[in-house]
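Researcher: Let's do a round of design. I'm pasting the structure tokens now; please hold your answer until I've finished.
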């Protein structure tokens, strides 16, 4: 652990008894914050590390183990603000496995307890990141909802549970008594919307917004509100994962049968649960679920593996804390703690000023992270992170690392709030934040960072595709005064470049040829390369195909632009405003004089409009088309080529290594998924193969 455990390790005693006492005190403090206040100071991975260290010490020194140790307890004490509920069956925790070896060790322990027999089937489920609850139905009527509490006694939150739309208040066909266990959670989309609302309401009131740290804590805190009206406004969700008590129900022999039965009664059961027959299949499924970790609209931090046979579950039994027939495989942590060394501000290619944290390097989300985004001025203010803080850092998949918030108990006594700078750190012109906007910007068009950014974008593969240029060379050429805007690329002083360190005649000739070749790039690529507000690759191609020449685009009125498929007034105003700027018109004049393509290719207009008005999404690598080529083929035939799947998508074309989220969404929406051969037929005929 980078915060609490790192501090404890540095200052902790080497005496086992003293270290055990230190760990128990730290774990008790963090458990209270997590389970009772729904406001944890440290990430789950750090808490797990403390608990594991304590468990290892108790195992090495049995005389120090006690029945009241945190290693023997479940959850935290119930909140006295709620009525206590004694669970009919204890709501136990699960033991954890942190790698495949530990998963296999669990399997071996079961075999020993079963006299060498191996369980025949396993249920593999997502370990959702939410709050465990128990629901009790009598004669089909929901009569009680309770939190886990300490595992034996929980809190009565029935009034709040009734506000969750996923949980039925009445179940037709239910037995006289039915108790189920499940997880209350908050969708990522709901969490974002909730935090956005907090910011908007705070801005309207002229106050500092209070941002919630993550969906898990927000869901837990929302469920434990005194007022059900507050809970109802939080858009919580629920999945059922276990049958607990049943009187008068059908005879069930497996866990998977019980889930199917609960689903038939109308209780929501997660669709990603699978029943498998071998540990090899279980390990493969764990890897598969790890790979789809960021494809869903909710968070899960692990995979739960259960013996499917209920009789074998009973034979294996449980220890003081957890059943022996189940284990939670914890996925690699995506949150860790580290020290925030300083806060700096970077200027983006469009002038946006973005604060970022300079960190003591920490391994999180599979990589070592030294910097993390802080998004904008409001986010820094709301999180109140300061240089010198111990902070929680999150990196999920390929998402840019971000600072979640500070560990307040570790804050230095002399800490002061960080203030957003008033001037651009690059050109030193004043930074500007428009009223009602979240972003702060450098509005100096001549800011060197913006010049570099515009040129880097223009030369990129998806725009003008100028090889051998690269960010380092752009930086050198701008610094040397050789380039002030993108048109300067076409009158570069190659003799001066040849005199620069690292350049030789061959490399200069390669760069010269690449710049010359870029002149023939299609009009749509040029439009995209100009970095016009609201114009990405698709909109750039639409402008080219709709108006055919740069001159017509420049002369088009707002109404003409708004008439382009998918544009509307906002995009039209942005495009019209950009082309109305005299600097933009002068730039295009210089590019035209340099010989760049100012008209769409004639072949584009003669292609048969087989896909007129329909959307086709392409994902993965095709053998006969580049990514841009596939998109251009669709646009040339009157179609649209968005980057995401929606209800209006005609088909998803998949090549090698397609995006799993797109495939999953297409299947969920029953959108046809086709291969490259079918794509060629679709281009020619406009019809999907039967």
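Researcher: That's everything. Go ahead.
Model: Designed sequence:
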């Amino acid at each position: 652990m980078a915060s609490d455990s790192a501090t404890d390790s540095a200052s902790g005693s080497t005496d086992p008894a003293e270290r055990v006492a230190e760990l128990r005190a730290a774990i008790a403090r963090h458990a209270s914050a997590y389970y009772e206040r729904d406001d944890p100071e440290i990430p789950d991975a750090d808490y797990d590390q403390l608990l594991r260290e304590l468990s290892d010490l108790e195992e090495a020194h049995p005389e120090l183990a006690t029945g009241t140790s945190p290693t023997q307890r479940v959850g935290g004490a119930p909140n006295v603000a709620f009525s206590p509920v004694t669970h009919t069956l204890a709501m136990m925790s699960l033991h954890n496995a942190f790698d495949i070896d530990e998963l296999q060790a669990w399997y071996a322990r079961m075999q020993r307890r079963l006299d060498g027999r191996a369980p025949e089937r396993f249920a593999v489920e997502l370990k959702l990141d939410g709050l465990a609850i128990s629901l009790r139905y009598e004669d089909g009527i929901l009569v009680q909802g309770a939190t886990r509490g300490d595992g034996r006694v929980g809190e009565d939150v029935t009034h709040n549970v009734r506000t969750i739309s996923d949980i039925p208040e009445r179940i037709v066909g239910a037995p006289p008594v039915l108790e189920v266990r499940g997880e209350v959670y908050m969708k990522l989309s709901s969490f974002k919307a909730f935090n956005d609302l907090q910011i908007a309401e705070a801005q309207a009131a002229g106050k500092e917004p209070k941002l919630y740290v993550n969906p898990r804590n927000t869901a837990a805190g929302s469920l434990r509100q005194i007022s059900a009206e507050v809970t109802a406004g939080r858009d919580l969700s629920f999945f059922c994962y276990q049958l607990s008590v049943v009187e008068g129900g059908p005879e069930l022999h497996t866990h998977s049968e019980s889930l199917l039965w609960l689903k038939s009664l109308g209780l929501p059961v997660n669709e990603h649960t699978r029943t498998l027959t071998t540990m090899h299949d279980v390990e493969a499924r764990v890897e598969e679920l790890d790979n789809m970790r960021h494809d869903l609209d909710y968070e899960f931090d692990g995979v739960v593996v259960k013996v499917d046979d209920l009789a074998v579950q009973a034979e294996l039994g449980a220890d003081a804390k957890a059943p022996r027939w189940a284990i939670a495989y914890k996925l690699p942590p995506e949150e860790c703690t580290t020290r925030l060394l300083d806060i700096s501000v970077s200027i983006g290619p469009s002038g946006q000023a973005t604060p970022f944290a300079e960190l003591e390097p920490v391994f999180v989300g599979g990589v070592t992270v030294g910097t993390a985004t802080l998004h904008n001025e409001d986010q820094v203010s709301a999180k109140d992170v300061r240089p010198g803080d111990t902070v929680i850092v999150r990196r999920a998949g390929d998402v840019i690392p971000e600072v979640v918030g500070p560990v307040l108990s570790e804050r230095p006594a002399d800490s002061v709030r960080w203030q957003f700078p008033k001037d651009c750190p690059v050109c030193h012109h004043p930074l500007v934040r428009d009223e009602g906007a979240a972003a702060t910007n450098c509005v100096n068009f001549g800011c060197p960072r913006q010049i570099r950014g515009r040129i880097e974008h223009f030369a990129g593969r998806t725009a003008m595709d100028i090889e051998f240029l690269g960010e380092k060379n752009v930086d050198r050429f701008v610094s040397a005064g050789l380039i002030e805007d993108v048109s300067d690329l076409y009158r570069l002083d190659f003799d001066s470049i040849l005199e620069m360190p690292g350049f030789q005649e061959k490399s200069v000739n390669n760069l010269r040829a690449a710049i010359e070749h870029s002149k023939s790039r299609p009009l749509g690529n040029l439009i995209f390369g100009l970095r016009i507000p609201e114009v990405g690759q698709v909109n750039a191609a639409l402008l080219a195909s709709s108006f055919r020449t740069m001159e017509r685009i420049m002369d088009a009125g707002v109404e003409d632009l708004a008439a382009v498929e998918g544009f509307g007034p906002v995009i039209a105003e942005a495009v019209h405003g950009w082309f109305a700027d005299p600097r933009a018109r002068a730039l295009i004049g210089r590019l035209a004089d340099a010989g760049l393509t100012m008209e769409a290719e004639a072949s584009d207009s003669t292609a048969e409009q087989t896909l007129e008005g329909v959307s086709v999404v392409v994902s993965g690598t095709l053998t006969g088309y580049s990514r841009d080529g596939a998109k251009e083929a669709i646009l040339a035939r009157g179609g649209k080529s968005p980057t995401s799947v929606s209800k209006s998508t005609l088909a998803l074309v998949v090549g090698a290594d397609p995006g799993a989220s797109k495939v999953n969404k297409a299947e969920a929406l029953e959108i046809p998924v086709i291969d490259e051969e079918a794509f060629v037929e679709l281009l020619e005929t406009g019809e999907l193969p039967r």
